[in-house]
Recover the amino acids of this structure.
């Protein structure tokens, strides 16, 4: 993408209304703009990151055997009355009436709707087990939306729902999602700690939150350092991790006999980016979901639900991955892999060399943001650092004479001069 | 995808509440389920089609140089007061108050929001021209939602917005979108007729609707048969098509001296799937969008907006492409390319042969729905016909002994027996 034809409004000043670093950087790097309190438009670079995260989430959901569908954002109040949650849910639920005075709401989550869809579609034990998921915008009318997309009102969530014939099957489905979550966060280059969680208003028997570690994290978690030794690709990772102590501070304080020796008990700050629940028949029973079992008798399926905050992750990753110059995207979710800088736009030799290199990068399928604007080199470097593109390729007059380009790694700051061919090879072209 | 593990609830009966064939077929083939009046959940097969259409639309928008971003679904009433449309818009606008009693709405379109975003981001003539687009859910509170996704309340739309420094530039942008639309519908295997349209509530000087021809179409259009001779890949296609007569019946009736000779004037039924507008400074002027021109003086940009009904297209395509047995998907947007039928699940030789063929299709990257269920062959054939997958591959006991499979083309009904290798080659593996 040529920056001269793109839509990437950077801010020079740190916006005063943004309190946390991810919010500041998302505004400065032109990822989002607030359009109402807690509601954001995703500008082109921000959307690229959001889509990459959604795609990674989708890939691991699919790999775990979950099936994607898409439920609408608007739901009827009647649906929520079937589960009894309409009155129980607080003012975070955005409620309104349509033109015919029917009570509607903007879905904050989809347990009711998926239970109704499944109930009206399946009859037999042969239709189970199934895990269904969607990636859709939700709305929670937070009283004080803040921290940018980390606690916005309209947000993108992946929510999956499992249906099993018995509790043992339900736990298999739960563990499959647990594993998918470990893989998902690892694929993003993040360390996520699964924390045993109280089940809260969704109800149920078993629940884990997944926290990304970041010094600026909103919550404090206590965990056994043994967690850090577990390899998430180990087939036993889920069973190991779910037996190692990890709690949010609030829960940890209630524990009178913490089983972890003091020297192994770590305290770190974390950001919740995923939450999984097993809640048995809470919704299936209240909403009349039943299938015919293998013996001909009715069975009430066991359910779980599994959320990942897709838009929240964009902010959480930035909290975990930045420095004083800007964002440092993990390569798997970077908006572009390479930022190509023409140090002297307008200089014929530099223009030819940079255009040629851009063409080669495109031909090799390497996603490149090409700063071809008539701007000072310093502004171009600062821009690429701010946006956080993993690799910067610099074409300047000296290098062009010498037949070399400079390759800078955003994360380490390492710079190397090398030939165009060597640079392309290093970048996987 | 193995059907035994999928979520594809087919209906045997035609739902009595569905009046038009696309709605009936979308319900019967398990593409969607209504969750409230005019609001649908997209089941897995329906979502695959919706995503393929969105991807084709996106490809042609990108090719035309438009830049993707994503605006939120919920907007503030204040934004619409800036353009004066808040009071002008009818009860189709879903309005509500949030917990702080602020007036909000579910966006039916985004002229105001994109104008505000652009206004707050750009300063200079160097930032123009730009065409920005997003693919996002919209809501229009239709008084009588009907015809399934063809006139739903929550619907997916691609809407693009162009910003130019002068009217001539604005018309270049308009024509680039016109061409993108021709390419988009052609890529879906559809014949779309561009019809000169009144500009209506969006306002402006120039507008075209794009209609897909279908006998069951909602509107009648009159056009010069010369339209059918224009090749959409011709670089002159846009200028040719915009100078050939085509009108909706309502407008045609107002024309006193139709310039088309009677023998060339065709009347056909069509379904509107796209609509483009050029409206000059209507929004930029009212909302205070201005940039510094090359001569230092302020310029009020010229704008256009360009919509495609992505979810509506799913229904429209079915209206245009079906027979008495079900849907006939154009290959470019089919949910799967191949439907693999194991005629005798449970028969060891058939199971081995079908599993092996499925593995080969997957290895070749051919999207396949594999009916591996323990069902009669007749039900499997009927299901594949109903879902409308372009190619059916049939593995049966006789064929397995003879070393052949049967390949059926859904559209023509042609059947051939051929070797597995020949079938794979024919299917592009």
């Amino acid at each position: 993408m040529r920056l001269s034809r793109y839509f990437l409004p950077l801010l020079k000043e740190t916006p005063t209304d943004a309190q946390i670093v991810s919010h500041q950087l998302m505004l400065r790097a032109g990822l989002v703009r607030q359009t109402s309190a807690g509601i954001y438009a995703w500008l082109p670079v921000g959307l690229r990151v959001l889509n990459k995260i959604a795609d990674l989430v989708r890939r691991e959901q699919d790999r775990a055997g979950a099936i994607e569908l898409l439920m609408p954002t608007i739901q009827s109040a009647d649906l929520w009355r079937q589960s009894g949650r309409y009155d129980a849910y607080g003012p975070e639920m955005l409620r309104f009436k349509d033109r015919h005075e029917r009570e509607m709401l903007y879905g904050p989550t989809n347990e009711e709707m998926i239970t109704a869809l499944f109930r009206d579609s399946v009859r037999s034990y042969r239709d189970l087990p199934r895990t269904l998921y969607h990636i859709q915008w939700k709305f929670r009318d937070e009283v004080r939306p803040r921290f940018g997309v980390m606690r916005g009102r309209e947000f993108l969530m992946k929510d999956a729902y499992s249906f099993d014939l018995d509790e043992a099957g339900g736990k298999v489905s739960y563990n499959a999602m647990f594993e998918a979550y470990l893989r998902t966060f690892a694929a993003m280059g993040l360390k996520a700690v699964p924390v045993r969680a109280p089940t809260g208003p969704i109800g149920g028997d078993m629940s884990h939150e997944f926290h990304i570690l970041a010094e600026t994290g909103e919550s404090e978690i206590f965990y056994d350092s043994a967690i850090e030794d577990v390899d998430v690709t180990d087939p036993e990772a889920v069973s190991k991790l779910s037996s190692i102590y990890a709690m949010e501070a609030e829960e940890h304080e209630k524990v009178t006999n913490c089983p972890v020796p003091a020297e192994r008990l770590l305290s770190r700050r974390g950001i919740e980016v995923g939450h999984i629940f097993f809640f048995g028949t809470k919704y299936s029973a209240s909403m009349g979901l039943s299938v015919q079992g293998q013996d001909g008798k009715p069975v009430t399926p066991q359910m779980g639900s599994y959320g990942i905050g897709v838009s929240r992750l964009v902010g959480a990753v930035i909290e975990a991955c930045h420095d004083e110059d800007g964002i440092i995207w993990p390569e798997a979710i970077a908006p572009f892999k390479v930022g190509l800088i023409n140090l002297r736009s307008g200089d014929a030799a530099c223009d030819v060399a940079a255009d040629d290199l851009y063409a080669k990068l495109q031909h090799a399928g390497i996603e490149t943001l090409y700063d071809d604007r008539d701007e000072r080199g310093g502004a171009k470097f600062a821009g690429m650092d701010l946006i956080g593109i993993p690799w910067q390729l610099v074409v300047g007059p000296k290098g062009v004479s010498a037949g070399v380009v400079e390759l800078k790694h955003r994360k380490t700051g390492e710079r190397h001069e090398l030939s165009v061919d060597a640079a392309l090879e290093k970048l996987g072209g």
Summary: Chain A has two domains: 3-323, 336-426.
